[in-house]
Design goal:
This protein has 160 residues and is mainly alpha-helical. The chain has one domain. It is built from eight helices and two strands; from the N terminus they run H-H-H-H-H-E-E-H-H-H. A two-stranded antiparallel sheet has the order 1-2. Helix 7 packs antiparallel against helix 8 (149-159). The longest helix is centred in the middle third of the chain and has 18 residues, at 78-95.
Length: 160
């Protein structure tokens, strides 16, 4: 019964927890430079929390983040390149500074541009002994369930 309760609590991630994780990103060494990445991350967090996935099209990101009024996504790949850099920075962050963070935020490839938040499972909630291998396994299972290319890569890193 205790493990079922821990699993139920682990599934729900509040908006405040997501905002707190965003603050950690913005204060980290990984995101210290790169104003456009910081701006894109904040924009994506806000739109994810407001459930405005329809507002996160490339054109809207170009206007809000890159401040480009005449953006054509078929001819200009600047938003796609910025999104790829953000994905790379998120991977770098979780590989280094954020390797023990409880909340994992993933920016999967594809449309619509949106963020996915998942909880890194804590062995302490399920079992009194701390076991790093089990934590990595649980995180990997959670990421694997999302079935996006970025999540699958992150899951494979957890299983190594």
């Amino acid at each position: 019964m205790q493990s079922q309760e821990a699993a139920r609590i682990a599934r729900h991630i509040s908006p405040d927890e997501i905002r707190e994780q965003c603050t950690k990103f913005l204060e980290s060494e990984t995101f210290a430079r790169g104003q456009q990445l910081r701006k894109l991350l904040a924009f994506m967090i806000d739109n994810t929390l407001l459930n405005n996935h329809h507002r996160t099209a490339q054109t809207m990101i170009a206007r809000q983040v890159l401040e480009a009024d005449d953006f054509d996504s078929t001819a200009d790949s600047s938003v796609r390149r910025l999104a790829a850099r953000l994905r790379e920075r998120l991977r770098d962050y979780y590989s280094n500074e954020g390797h023990e963070d409880a909340i994992i935020i993933i920016f999967p490839k594809g449309q619509p541009y949106r963020l996915v938040a998942t909880r890194r499972y804590s062995i302490a909630a399920v079992h009194p002994l701390e076991n790093r291998a089990f934590q990595e396994y649980q995180s990997g299972r959670s990421l694997w369930a999302a079935r996006t290319p970025d999540c699958l890569r992150a899951a494979m890193d957890c299983f190594r």
